[in-house]
Amino acid sequence: MADLDELDFAVLYLLQEDARNTTPVDMAERLPVSAQTVRNRIDGLEAAGVVDGYEPVVDYRRAGFPLRISFTCTAPVERRADLADSALELPRVVSVDEFLSASENLRVLAVTDDSEAITDISERLVDLGLTIESERLLRRRAVRPYDGFAERSPSAETD
């Protein structure tokens, strides 16, 4: 685990808000440090693996893929991690969440524009060795930055 201080938490919070459109200069204006200090902190967070990439937020519906299906699955506990990795490699699967429980321990999110593909995805998940507990069409997903970083930051102005 990385040893983070208040400034690191502030930088993380600001990156979560809008990493694409927020420059180190913008961050420095909201923090009591220089833009170079912000750049150094970002480099350090990346080197430590705390910041492990920058993911675009894709609106699949607007991109022509209106069907988002959430599969709640059960994997044998001893195979859970391997099955999660295998599920993520399936066509149309965009994310897999792993839970520390004996049942309903994987959530698989798939995206498609074809209702027939839902059956194909289901069959592939079962072929991997997963038990599908439920399938649900996802209507909406909302996210926000983790506010725990802001609570630990030195006067980062939050909107």
From TrEMBL:
GO biological-process terms attached to the record: response to amino acid
Gene3D superfamilies according to UniProt: Winged helix-like DNA-binding domain superfamily/Winged helix DNA-binding domain
Gene Ontology CC: cytosol
Entry-linked PANTHER family: LEUCINE-RESPONSIVE REGULATORY PROTEIN, TRANSCRIPTIONAL REGULATOR AZLB
UniProtKB keywords: DNA-binding, Transcription, Transcription regulation
SUPFAM superfamilies in UniProt: Winged helix' DNA-binding domain
GO molecular function, one term: sequence-specific DNA binding
Species the sequence originates in: Halosimplex pelagicum
All residue ranges annotated as the HTH asnC-type domain in the record: 4-66
Protein name (record): Lrp/AsnC family transcriptional regulator
